[in-house]
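Appendix B, Record 12. Input sequence as logged:
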Amino acid sequence: MNATPGVSPEVLRQVKLLELQTRGLVNSLFTGEYRSVFKGQGMEFAEVREYQAGDEVRSIDWNVTARMGRPFVKRYIEERELTVMLAVDLSGSERFGTRGRFKSELASELAAVLAMSAIRNNDRVGAVLFTDRIEHVVPPRKGRRHALRLMRDLLVFEPVGTRTDLPAALEFTGKMVAHKSIIFVVSDFQAPDLEHPLKLLAQRHDVIAVTVDDPSEQTLPDIGLARFVDPETGDTIDIDTSDPDVRRRFGEAVEEEITTRRRLLRRLAIDEIPVHTDGSIVEPLIRFFRARETRARRR
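Logged structural output:
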């Protein structure tokens, strides 16, 4: 990777390390999964023809097969390039973590894997980094150099805002791309009034919610009297964490919030990839790819 004006050697080393890590994951784990899951979204249907030896079972048109009494497959012509957009939340709540890394670092790692998967499949990939405003935009393009630039921005970009306006970010991202695209929304989704903008986005695009959480946000530790600071507003609150009733009510409130979020995503038919700062991104991604592939086969 050549030196880039205005970028320190340390940043370039970080980018190179992230590229090596993600390239290894993509090559060893996601070589076929990405393509098999998103293949067909960028292909034009041509015709249905009778099955021939060597055709993929996945391409069988089961409705026509049932009517004709023998197998038929769908044939597609020239595959159009796909566009993958990464909408990444950089608000104050993302710059938090108690188990090895911040939520923002986990988000950057996962976004880098998705970017490398797209580039390997010769797709275009872009990013929208946001807080309560659109902080930074990387227009979708192809190629390794572009992917490295995107990784660099994910690693080192310093946002101005600390609050979150997820609805505005969803609207902006949807308008960035003219045709149907794959949009990964990487956020903790701690924002109100999400149903309408998510519904509008999912009507035009394939939306996947990557929900980023930290274990300490789900369980209040017993550490006595503690002062907590809201990372987005700066507001503080003193809580007696030694009180079992306080810890119980906190856990119930968090559980209700997570349940409400999952119900919303399910209602809108938006897939969720839940990731945690104390875990790997590999297992959640593999579960997502396999669940999608299983669902496609059933259709």
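The longest helix spans residues 244-267.
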